[in-house]
Structure formats: structure tokens, C-alpha cells
Amino acid sequence: MRAPKRQEWLRLGLLAAAAAWLLHPFATRLQYGAGDALWYAHMLADFVLQIRRGVFPVFAGQTVYAFNGAVYPLRVAPMYQHLAGLIDLLTGHARGVFTLQHLVVITCGVSGIYACYYTLRRLVPERPWGAVGFAVLYLSCPGLLATVYTQDLYMTWTTVPFAPLAAYGIARSFRGDDLGAQAWLAVPLAALWWAHSPIALWFTMIAAGSQAYRLLRVDRGWLPFRRALLGAGLFGLLVQYPFVSVAEVQTPGHPSTVISSLARPEQVADNLRGVFPAAILPLSDHARALGDLQLGYALWAVLLLAAAAALLTGGRELKVLLAGAFFILLFLLPIPGLNAFLWGHLPAEIVRITYYWPMQRFYLILAALLAAAGQLALGRLPLSGKRARLAGSAVLAAGCAWSLWESRQFIHAAADRTASPEATARSQLPENLFLTSDAYGLFGSLPPYFSNGVVHPRLQARLRSPVTGRVLPTPDRRIAESGPLVGTVDANPGVLDLGTRLHLRRGRRYVLEFGFGRPDLQGILQLSGNSMFREYILPSSGEELAFGSEPNNGRGIDLWTSNPDGDDIGIRFIPTAPGQKASDFAAFGTYRLFEVDPGQEPVAVASMIPFTAHVKSAEPAILESPRMYMPGYEATVDGGSAEVLRSDAGLVSVAVPAGTHTATLSFRAPLLLGVSYWAALASWAAVLALAVRAHFRRVPVPRN
Predict the structure, then answer these.
(1) Over the stretch 356-388, which tens digit does the pLDDT of each residue have?
(2) 450-455+475-600 in CATH: which number?
């Protein structure tokens, strides 16, 4: 590998060509994917924007992309945003958020196919072309490609480079009991925990089971056990930060999503049954079905090949990899009686982390294990004759060709899921940014104001009475316009055009208040203009006090525009209740458009980093910010230190006296969180330095 010959360059080139085919749809600046992909992009944008403004480390959201202080996926899977931040640094802070997101995908995919090839070469050096074939099968596995192509699972995708290394680490530990073997096992497993905890959890269980078997049956005695303890210590040192960071989010005495369980755990087994037989059939058109998360025929053939080789020729490392694969298959295949029993008796925490769709986690693990098992099996089968070698090579090449041909369905899906330049630009305009419930992950509950739609970040702070807890009234706002909302059926008969066009001026803030004509609204309220596009679900767009038509819902929507020429906003309603027609809602109601003067508001937010608000109140009050409470926030009022409070809504708050004052909120990492982070970074830097040193260290030539 250090002095490659022509054939080696050819092999590396073929891997590059395969990766280019499998990943080329992500070589774009345009938005790719649906709502989850956009949420990932927003969280990435918050992280990168904070770094560009000199904030490091980043422990909580602070910009308009994550104004609620989001910590998910930042705390639970830091690899995704940290890798994007590194790429942003290396590219001179000149790339857009979607470009960075796609560079993460390409980086992980290319690293994954070469990591797989590298480890397979180490397993069976005399079968280099086999390593090429199995590396291609790994990256082209449908269950792996679907995670990023159609499922928008960017955290999952960041495990692609490390899963083959973890599979190799398991096999390596059976080839020699030394500290090198422990490092090969500990480091990739720790990296998986930084990337995505569900995949890391199951891979760690497989690795732990393999090591228990090794220490009990193969390498007995105190010295192997001591080396295993050293490996476990290295693993703990590298992996501790995600655990500490998640624990530091929780507030004592308040609900925690970290220790909760799934509401319907039986749904896991139902979902696994529901994707069969589709999961063992060729991919559907454009690969949009859940059954397209599958192993693929080529890797099923590899499983059978490896099982035959294990029975015929033995080999502990091959058998232990197959044992891990069959362990996963027991939980994946809908075997009547067994599958539901296994999922029903797993600890609730494992089921919760795995979540409702195990196929999103398991096929990637299987692909890594089977790639290594296939290479070992190929090295053990009697292929010494020329014809036998040609036959084996032809079968492997046919498997690669089939997998690459099948992957065209994901390429077709990419064409459908890539936005136009206009839609891409519009999605990143401030008036269209919204936080989904995913941005509140790891917090105990959603605040009652949460709306699954766009809200103005600087209009989300409020004053509450310290006595009653009620929101203090705001001064009267000027009505810019008002009138009835009378609809006509659009050219699309399922859409009601409400007729009114609202003109918004740049630099102004507005609140659009609805008076709904009937209480049984069920549908989508759509607002669109030259730069704006939003949708709100009715009868409620979110929690109890969010915008909607239910009794306790708020009736107002924040409006503003970044368009220099202003924007003209149209309003439409799309009924979604069975049997209802658009014409049934022609007498929709009324509207009032208020213009907001920040200088007259009781709370005027001046900045987001740090959160700074100018407060005016005739009586002592509690300033409730939009940031979710967790340990680490510090507050000042007029420059003096103030106590940080947690409101009943779970939001960071601070008491302010009567009069006009300036309050700030900033996040300072608690001691344990800061120490954990820097210790982890130092440990990873040391491991990387040792790996580079070991790679370039000259091997002494033995004397004759």
C-alpha cells in the first residue's frame, strides 16, 4: 500500500469510479431531500455560523437557525456538525449550508469505500481484487444508500467510514492478542458513538459478545484480560463526551426524553413484518418504499458464501463475524413468534434508542460485517486453480454489477428530491426558516408555544407576572389593514384561494391575526409570495398555545420579508378532512394585519449571540426567552449578574425590575461538560498522532 503498483492504482481508481457513481447526485449546491434534510441543514447552519462568529466549542443553538438553544443532534451525535465545521474551515468559510451538507455525505461515502478496502486488504492481503469487490458491495448496499438518499438520515450516514473499521477490529482481535488489536477495536467503536448512537449501540453489543467469547474460550488468562481492560479504558476515554454531553442537558426534577421509552414498542415488530416481502425483492421504482431499506441480493449471496466457508474450513474470525450478522438477522427478519418475542423482551432503553424502524440501523451494520466475512471466506475457499479463481472473480463482479445497476433507482430518486435553484434560495430566507419538533430533541417536553411553522425569533420572548405567571399584556398595535376572508375555488379544485393580498415592506414586522368563521377547520393554511412560502396545519399547528383554530390556540402569525422590494402575500386553504371540499369553507372568516413597532414592545430582542433583550415594564416581571432551559446559562440585568430561572414552559427566564432594563443570556459550559469535551478532543488528537506515526514508522529489515 505504501508503494502501489499499476494494479493498485487501477483498483483505487475503480473504487473512485464506483463512489463517484453512487454519490454524484450530492455534488450540488442545491437543497436535497425533504423536511428532515432541511432540519439537519438548519442545525448545521447554526453550528457553522457560530464558529464563523468566533464561538467555540458550540454547545447550544444561538442563531436564527436554532434560536431555541437546540442541542440535538449536536450533543448526542457531534460527528455530523463537527465534520461540517472542519470542512467549512478547510474551504475558507466560503461554502453554503447545502454544499457543506453534501460535502459531508461525499466525504463519508468516499472514506467508507476506501476504509472498507483498506481493512479487507489487511484481512486477506493476497486477495486485493476481492477487497475491491466487497468494498463496492458495502457502499452500494441498498440499506446503506437509502439512509441518505430517501430517509435523510445524516447522522446514520456519518457511521459509513467507521463500520468497516469496527468489523475489522473484531476480526483482528482473534488474530493476535496485543494492544494493537485493542486499539483497532476501541477507536472505531468510539467513533461510531460520536456519529450515531443506535448503530454504535448494536455494534458495541456485537463487539462485546465477541470479546467475551475470546476471553473465555480463546485467549484465557490474566494478561489478555488486562489488555482488554486497557482497550476498554481507551474506548471509555474516547467515547465519554457524547454521554456526558447528553447527561448535562437534563435538569434534575424535570422529565427527560433520554430515559423515556417508546409509546408503542410493539410497533417495532409490526414495522419489520410490514416491509416483507418487499425487502427481499428488487428495488421499487425510484426506491421510495420502506422495503427498499434492504440487504440486496449480492450481500445475501455473500452471507451464504461465508456460511458455507465457515462450515467447510472453519476460522474463528470468520465465524465471529457471521455470528454478529446472524444476531442482527434474528432481530430483523419477521420470523413468526420469535421476532415479536425478542423485541418484547429487550430492555426498554435499547428499544427506545433503536426506534421504530430498525432496518434504518441494521442493514448498514450487516453490510460492514458481511463485507469482511466475504473477504475472509474468499481467502479460505479452494480457489487455487485458474478456472476457480476466474469463476470466483466473475461471480463477485456480477454481484457488484447488479448492486451498481440497482442503485440507479436511488439516482432517479435524487432527481426527484433535488430542489430547483429558486426553491433552494427561498428555503434559506429568514421569513421561511422554521424549527421542527426535532430541534427540541433531548429536552423533556415542547414549550406550549411551539408551532410547526415559521415564527419570528425576536418576537418569541415575553414578560410574565411573577405572581400569577400570566403573560403581561402588550400595548395596542397599529392595524395596517383588515377585512373579510372570502374564498373562491382555485384552478386546482382542492384549493381555496382566500383572495386577499397582503403587502409587506422590508424591515417591518407584522402579525397577521385570523378570525376563523367555523371551528371545524382541518387542513393546510398556505401563505406564499415572491420570497415567502409557508404552511401551517389546522386546527392546530403545534402545542396548546401555538397558532391554530382550537379554543386555546393563538390566532396570530408573525410576518416579515427580506425582499428589498417588499412582498405581496397570498393566502390559500387546502382542506384535508375526508369528504370536505374547498367550497365548503368559502366564508373563511376575517383577518387583521398589525404592524409591530419594536420600540413600543415590552421586549425588544437586540441580538441572538448572546441573547440580548431591552425590557420595558411598569411592574416587576419575568423575562421568558425562547431558549430551552438546561444547566449552563448565565444572565445579567443592566450588566449585573442575575439568577437564571426555569419557567413553567421549560424556558430560560430571568427576573427584571420595573422600568427599562437590558437583560442578556449566554451559555457557559458547566465544568464537567467543558472538561469532557477538551479531554475527548485531546484524546482523539493523540490517537490520530499515534496512528500517523505508526503508519510512517520504518519497519526494520531483519538481518540475513
Answers:
(1) 999 999 999 999 999 999 999 987 776 656 776
(2) 2.60.120
